[in-house]
């Protein structure tokens, strides 16, 4: 017999449940169970960004992964003339800046909120804490991260391959 | 590319100096908040553990406080008769202890007078010199007891403040992050994470050590049949908040009680050996686990921070000297990490196999 619904409603934190449900929907955390997601929610920091607010600028040292729960964020890169060019617009449920979890190097693009946006930040040392205290969660996140990076690398390789073949055929 | 941002050393120095000056100037008002903050840090993982199951934080904190109140009321049923019994026993035995002491003094005097006839005057003069300050200090005892009343107020104030700190939990940090300029959020998180890790591990570590020392000394002293085992073990546990002091206080007070109780040096030596053993066990078993996850301080910095804390803030300075040094070290680590990453001191990682094509 489960806990009666009115008791669940009384004791359960709806905000915490909403965050867990949102994280569960992301491919990065798809393998995590209810308890793992609870630990993960406590490791994340949330912040609301208003339209026009800059999250980071190209060249800043990256230190956190950003997960977009609501709103819209655009990634821009400066071209040779120094003009900002939008390279991608992020929708809710997408994440970016994941390279900061692996190495502290300059960001390769700038990020700016174009709407009122709710973001969750996973800071590098928090992930290290998760890896240490909850290795199962840490390994799952790192495996998915590696798979995502591999998929991106494959896509880039495939995109570059036809051009190389054409060059080779033309001698 | 954006311009490189250097670490704001001057503002950091200015803010740090202001905080230190305010802490020095208003240290009496800060004490309950510092103690509550430390207590909240220790209890917070318990609350967090229940929160991960999706329970509401306010209910968890209320439940936790109710449980603690229940435990205290149950313990009071056991502790109050024990403590009052020990006090009554002390009142009853005090004349016996004084008689033992006088007898010992007389024995010593007789032995010295026998072998050193001219030393008698010197011993009498020394005894008078020793008795005079003791009698003078005894007159001040009511004043010392009255001085403990502000400490009693802390017993009510600290849990009260801790309650609100626990209720707020991470939301106060979130509010701070929300107020932080958007581009500096990552850096603010870096700072918070480093301090959180260093301080949390240290505080949880010293609480474990205090409980272990109190429990081990209570078992040891009870097995030896030493009076006031509970009071001595509690005193020893509390004193261990100041590193190395717990075992010293325990050995000193326990040794004196054992000496007066049994009237032999052997009994006192046994108690001293017990506390020496507890100290060794702490060093060999507990410290490796605690130190593994907490900030490592060089022994000289450790000693210097204790001396400085004691000199500037008194006893409370002794208690908080090491955590403060941990925070300072965490801040310096953050400043160095910021500086080295901004100037890309280490550069990107390079691997031998990075030239192999994607297959």
Question: Which structural class matches the secondary elements of chain B?
Answer: mainly alpha
- Tell me about the largest β-sheet of chain B: none
Share of helix of chain B, binned: over 70%
SS summary, helix count of chain A: 5
Q: What's the rounded overall pLDDT mean of chain A?
A: 86
Strand order of the largest sheet of chain A: 1-8-3-6
E-strand count of chain A? 8
Question: Would you write up a description of this structure?
Answer:
- The complex is a heterodimer of chains A (171) and B (359).
- Chain A has five helices and eight strands.
- Chain A has 171 residues and is α+β, with helices and mostly antiparallel strands.
- In chain A, the strands form two sheets. Chain A has a four-stranded antiparallel beta sheet with strand order 1-8-3-6.
- In chain A, helix 2 packs across helix 3 and helix 4 packs across helix 5.
- Chain A starts with a helix and ends with a helix.
- Chain B contains 13 helices and no strands.
- Chains A and B meet through helix 2, helix 3, strand 1, strand 2 and helix 4 of A and helix 7, helix 8 and helix 13 of B.
Map the helices and strands:
The complex is a heterodimer of chains A (171) and B (359).
Chain A: H1 5-11, H2 14-24, H3 34-43, E1 44-49, E2 54-56, E3 64-70, E4 73-78, E5 84-90, E6 95-96, E7 110-113, E8 117-123, H4 124-133, H5 135-169
Antiparallel strand pairs in A: 1-8, 2-7, 3-6, 3-8, 4-5, 4-7
Helix pairs in contact in A: 2-3, 4-5
Chain B: H1 9-25, H2 27-51, H3 57-115, H4 119-139, H5 141-147, H6 149-168, H7 171-179, H8 185-224, H9 229-239, H10 245-262, H11 265-293, H12 299-313, H13 315-342
């Amino acid at each position: 017999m489960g806990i009666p619904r009115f008791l669940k409603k009384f004791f359960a934190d709806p905000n915490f449940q909403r965050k867990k449900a949102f994280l569960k929907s992301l491919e990065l955390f798809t393998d995590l169970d209810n308890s793992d997601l609870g630990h993960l929610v406590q490791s994340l920091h949330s912040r609301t960004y208003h339209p026009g607010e800059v999250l980071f600028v190209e060249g800043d040292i990256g230190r956190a992964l950003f997960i977009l729960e609501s709103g819209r964020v655009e990634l821009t890169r400066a071209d040779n003339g120094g003009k900002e060019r939008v390279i991608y617009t992020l929708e809710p449920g997408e994440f970016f800046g994941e390279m900061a979890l692996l190495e502290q190097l300059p960001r390769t693009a700038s990020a700016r909120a174009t709407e009122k946006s709710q973001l969750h930040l996973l800071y590098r040392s928090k992930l290290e804490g998760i890896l240490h205290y909850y290795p199962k969660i840490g390994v799952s996140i790192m495996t998915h991260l590696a798979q995502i990076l591999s998929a991106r690398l494959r896509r880039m390789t495939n995109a570059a391959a036809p051009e190389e073949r054409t060059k080779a055929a033309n001698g | 590319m954006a311009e490189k941002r250097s670490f704001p050393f001057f503002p950091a120095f200015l803010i740090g100096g202001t905080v230190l000056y305010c802490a020095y100037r208003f240290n009496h008002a800060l004490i309950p908040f510092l103690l509550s903050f430390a207590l909240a840090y220790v209890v917070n993982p318990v609350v967090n553990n229940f929160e991960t199951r999706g329970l509401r934080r306010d209910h968890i904190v209320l439940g936790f406080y109710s449980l603690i109140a229940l435990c205290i009321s149950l313990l009071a049923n056991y502790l109050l008769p024990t403590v009052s019994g020990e006090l009554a026993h002390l009142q009853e035995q005090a004349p016996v202890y004084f008689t033992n002491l006088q007898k010992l003094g007389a024995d010593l005097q007789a032995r010295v007078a026998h072998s050193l006839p001219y030393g008698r005057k010197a011993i009498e003069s020394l005894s008078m010199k020793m008795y005079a300050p003791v009698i003078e200090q005894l007159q001040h005892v009511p004043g010392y007891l009255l001085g403990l009343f502000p400490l009693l107020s802390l017993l009510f104030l600290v849990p009260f403040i801790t309650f609100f700190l626990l209720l707020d939990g991470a939301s106060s940090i979130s509010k701070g992050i929300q107020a932080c300029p958007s581009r500096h959020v990552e850096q603010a998180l870096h700072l918070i994470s480093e301090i959180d890790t260093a301080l949390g591990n240290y505080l949880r570590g010293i609480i474990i050590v205090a409980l272990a020392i109190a429990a081990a000394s209570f078992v040891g002293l009870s097995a030896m049949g030493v009076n006031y085992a509970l009071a001595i073990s509690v005193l020893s546990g509390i004193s261990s908040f100041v590193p190395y002091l717990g075992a010293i206080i325990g050995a000193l007070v326990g040794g004196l009680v054992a000496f007066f109780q049994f009237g032999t040096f052997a009994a006192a030596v046994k108690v001293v050996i017990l506390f020496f053993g507890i100290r060794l066990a702490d060093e060999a078993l507990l410290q490796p686990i605690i130190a593994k996850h907490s900030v490592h301080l060089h022994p000289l910095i450790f000693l210097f921070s204790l001396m400085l804390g004691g000199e500037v803030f008194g006893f409370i300075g002794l208690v908080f000297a090491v955590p403060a040094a941990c925070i300072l070290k965490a801040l310096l680590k953050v400043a160095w990490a910021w500086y080295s990453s901004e100037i890309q001191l280490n550069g990107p990682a390079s691997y031998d196999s990075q030239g192999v094509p994607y297959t």
